[in-house]
UniProtKB/TrEMBL annotation:
Residue ranges of every copy of the Transcription regulator PadR N-terminal domain listed in the record: 9-82
Coiled coil: none
Organism: Amycolatopsis plumensis
PANTHER family on file: PADR-FAMILY TRANSCRIPTIONAL REGULATOR, TRANSCRIPTIONAL REGULATOR RV3488
Gene3D superfamilies: Winged helix-like DNA-binding domain superfamily/Winged helix DNA-binding domain (1.10.10.10)
Protein known as: PadR family transcriptional regulator
Lineage: Bacteria, Bacillati, Actinomycetota, Actinomycetes, Pseudonocardiales
Length: 201
C-alpha cells in the first residue's frame, strides 16, 4: 500500500492537481503495475484515503457530459508525506515495490537528502552481507535439523541480489553527488510546481 500511496500522492502533486482517471492513466503510462504491483482499484482507494487523512483536498467539478468529477490537490501535509515515503523507500531493504516507487519520485528530495538516504541503504546492505558471509562460513550452526540443507541456495540467491543492489546504490549515490537529475533544491524542480489555488488569489 505504501508504494501505491507514494505514487498516487506524487502524481497528484507533480500534476498540480488531477482527477482519479488522470492519476490512473499516468501510472499506466509508466507501467507501474509491473514494477510496483499497483492495481486500478487501489488507486481510487488511495486517493480517498489520502483525502480523508488530510493529505489531499477534494474539489468537485462539473463533468463534460456526465456527473461531477473530483479534482485532487496535494496539501502541505501531503507533500511532506511524499518526502517521508521517498526517504523510507530509499533506505528500507527487502521491499522492491517501495524502492521502485521511491526511485520514481526521487526528485522530491533535495540532493543531500537523497544522497544521505541512499547511503543508509548502502550501509544496511553491507551489514546484511557481513551477517550472510558469517552464516555461510558456519552454516550448520544456524540451520535447524528439520530444514533441508539445500535451502541454503535461497541465501545464495538473496546474497547475489543484495550484492547487485549494493553496487547499484553506490553508483546512484555517485551520480547524485556529480549532479545527476533535477532535485528538489534545483531550479525547475517538482517542488516548484505552482499551487493553482494561490495563483487565483
Amino acid at each position: 500500500m505504501s508504494a501505491t500511496k507514494l505514487l498516487v500522492l506524487g502524481i497528484v502533486h507533480i500534476s498540480g492537481g488531477a482527477h482519479g482517471y488522470q492519476v490512473r492513466s499516468e501510472l499506466q503510462s509508466w507501467r507501474a503495475e509491473t514494477w510496483a504491483k499497483i492495481k486500478p482499484g487501489s488507486i481510487y482507494h488511495a486517493l480517498k484515503k489520502a483525502a480523508a487523512d488530510g493529505l489531499l483536498t477534494e474539489h468537485a467539478e462539473p463533468g463534460n457530459s456526465g456527473p461531477e468529477r473530483v479534482l485532487y490537490r496535494a496539501t502541505a501535509r501531503g507533500r511532506d508525506e511524499i518526502v517521508e515515503l521517498v526517504r523510507d523507500g530509499l533506505r528500507r531493504t527487502h521491499d522492491p515495490d517501495m524502492l521502485n516507487a521511491a526511485i520514481a519520485m526521487l526528485p522530491m528530495l533535495t540532493r543531500s537528502d537523497a544522497i544521505a538516504h541512499v547511503g543508509e541503504r548502502v550501509a544496511r546492505l553491507e551489514a546484511e552481507l557481513v551477517v550472510r558471509a558469517e552464516w555461510q562460513e558456519h552454516p550448520h550452526r544456524d540451520i535447524p535439523e528439520h530444514i533441508p540443507e539445500h535451502v541454503r541456495e535461497q541465501a545464495e540467491l538473496w546474497a547475489g541480489h543484495a550484492r547487485t543492489e549494493l553496487e547499484w546504490a553506490k553508483s546512484l549515490s555517485k551520480r547524485l553527488s556529480e549532479g545527476a537529475y533535477t532535485m528538489a533544491d534545483d531550479p525547475g524542480s517538482w517542488q516548484t510546481v505552482p499551487d493553482p489555488l494561490k495563483m487565483h488569489l
